[in-house]
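ENTRY TYPE: paired fold submission
RECORD: A
CONTENT: sequence, then structure tokens
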Amino acid sequence: MTYFNLKAKAFIILLTAALFGSGAYAQAQTGGVVGAQTYAENFFKAYKEDTRKAVFELFKTNPRIDSGKLEDIVKTIDKERKNIGDYHGKELITQKKASGSLVLYSYLVKHDVQPVRFTFMFYKPKNDWIIYRFYFDGNVDSELQDSAKL
């Protein structure tokens, strides 16, 4: 009888460990991607008021980026913003996960005159996500139109 109780206790301990272990693994898998998406969300919070702040905060994650290039990005976006009007929000177009260390988020960004697209690619070389690529373009409508052709 004692042998049965010992086996039952061992089984319960193993089952509990397996359940908690798989839950922790799942949290680690999804939590990492959520961390990358948080950078994009924070970008848009800052973008609402100030392009420069949004761009520089985003690229703080990647110290290898030249600040001169960041200034060029800010100038390009601000020039376009003057033509397309006020910012009214964003919608996620797509999210792609190449692996647990490389993810892409593409957003439709709504302005008065026309939408634009921001695409963020994040890379996790070790423990933390960094911005790896950042794209800005206003060709969302023409690409959608092209996709409707036979």
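RECORD: B
CONTENT: sequence, then structure tokens
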Amino acid sequence: MDIMRMILFHDGTTIGAFHKPLGKSIESFSLRGSSVKSAPTVVNCLILEPNGNCFTLIDAAALATGKLQRFTSASCPSVYVSMLGEVLRFRNMYFHQNIYAHQHHLTKEQLKWRNAALPTQIRWRCGGFKAASIKIDTGMYLFQSMDGIAQVTLCDTGSMFEATFLVPVAMHNDTTRFPVTLMKQRFYRDLIPESWLYPATVLIQLRMAYIIRGYTMKMSLNNDTENKPSPELIQEAKYYLEQWQKHTKNPELKGDDGQPLWRFKKAKQVWILRWMYRADVVNKALFSIVLEYLGGMQGTARDRVLREAQVVIEATKDSENQTTEAEQTLEQKLQRRKMKRAFQIAKALA
């Protein structure tokens, strides 16, 4: 059977819908057929209860007679084992409580044996991390437990986690060895389960440390007192942004030469992105236009500017001290203004 749709409810109830074509119509095999009729299909709906121990099957017979069939997962009829296995995998991957695993639904390859029971708690390393060593070749960030029974990965965008770990498997008969299987769970940054909170927090912090360490944008994060650009370049950037603002309000405006009033220039945009954090280069009035300009950016360019703003926030926040406004040097004041502008940019692009 092919999966049509899976639905997971908040309490753990899971619904899986499956369909299977009964056969192909003869027209589908004939090149002379004027039209191809879709083959009839059989649809089964499997409703798994919150704890995963039982399920209800709704098929054509149930709809015809009005009688539903309810089975225990451990004694599932063989004809429904593949469907139940798919529903259980989906439930266990996205429902982070009461994981259910039984030998009846696992293949020989999925079932593993241990001479000792799994530990009741997973041991994670505390401290002594290296940001460079935690990023793997695929671009993801990996954190493994000390006992080797679990690991958590964070995707390169920093939004989704995947935990892989061993869980005990229920059996029909008692054995001297302990059956286990490898389970996967996925969760997002704003919905981290309590059981994975520590490794997920470590990965988030190490990812940010890796970004800050490997940051290669042209603008220097630590040297805000470098030479300012010439007044001519500042004036050109101001003119470019003002013309863009007029063009945005009225795209039909033309210049004296009959050409559009504003045209995109990559060199100007690069210059603006480099110097927009410097209050002594881009004044407050001009920065307000820059925020409007950034709001119109799309795609990877927008994501890159947002990521750079987040890096600036982290870098300047760590270097900020508790001195009063009157005691601060010019460099410290520029750092504070840079962080404030980074917050404004991140808010405009979020």
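NOTES ON RECORD B: The beta strands are 2-8, 14-21, 41-48, 54-58, 69-72, 111-114, 141-144, 150-154, 160-168, 178-188. The chain has three domains: 2-98, 113-211, 231-349.
STATUS: closed
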